[in-house]
Design brief:
Keywords: Signal. By secondary structure, this protein is α+β, with helices and mostly antiparallel strands. The chain contains one helix and five strands; from the N terminus they run αβββββ. β1 and β2 form a beta hairpin.
């Protein structure tokens, strides 16, 4: 029983630490990514907690067709073709 209580206390401590790190006051970069699939297209939306001036891209695909430039707003959106041939723009 004591072991179970210690585990619960440890998990609660980790959870509290994670929640504290995800607050806006901590200054952490924690974008929220959502995706919607339609016929042949995946629409990606990324929301930020502050204005974003950078590059967002698909993991390991830093090509113009798989990336978007932030323009100082708190969200960016872009579409990725699911039917495009490999290597096409």
């Amino acid at each position: 029983m004591l072991c179970l209580i210690r585990r619960c206390a440890f998990v609660c401590m980790l959870l509290a630490t994670a929640l504290a790190q995800n607050t806006e006051s901590s200054g952490d970069f924690t974008p929220v990514v959502s995706a919607t699939c339609k016929t042949g297209v995946m629409s990606i939306r990324i929301n930020f907690s502050q204005p974003f001036n950078g590059v967002a891209h698909a993991r390991e695909f830093r090509t113009p067709s798989c990336m978007v430039l932030g323009n100082g707003t708190e969200s960016v959106t872009y579409d990725i073709s699911l039917t495009a041939a490999a290597g096409s723009p």
